[in-house]
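Hello forum,

I keep getting stuck at the same step: I have a sequence, I want structure tokens, and every attempt I make locally crashes halfway through. Rather than fight my setup again tonight, could one of you with a working pipeline run this one for me? It's a single chain of 178 residues.
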Amino acid sequence: MRKLSHSEIKAERKDLTNIHEFKRNPVYVLCDSIRSIFNVGAIFRASDGAFIEKIFLSGYTPYPPRKEIEKVALGATLSVPWEYVKDPLDVVKRLKSEGIKICSLELTDKPKLVWDLNKEDFPLCLILGNEITGVSKELIDESDFSVELPMLGMKQSLNVSVATGIALYEMIRILNYT
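Reply #2:
Ran it on my machine without issues. Output:
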């Protein structure tokens, strides 16, 4: 075994000039009032890695162009389609009308672990809430279901960008490798 060189890795990656020619995974992300600009950058980067359809930024979530987002996103703001919409409910209603399921990443009274999803749950939009208050009641009420990540220690949650990366990669595993 040997570590691949940067040029070997780059040769296997998509290029911005033809990225639109590839089929994306049927997952959308809706960030509602994420307060950390660095979390937004990390969500862009994880979304690029999972090759999702689109990111929606809403509420007071920071949005590009911002050097702080780019510092973490490392170009993913160019490779992941995104849109800023003030009211997240507008996004939810639009996506529902297109047959896309709405899924909150949140602890609720009807828990479903992220790895209990199956192919029939897609396409879906994963809603991410504020780092302190989580997904709003209004968005949970509009969700078809919620998913959570098990927390086995004393903390009740992970950082929103870390949780997003874990959830997205589990989703692409379900979509592409099961």
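The longest strand covers residues 25-32. If your local run keeps crashing, start a new thread with the error log.
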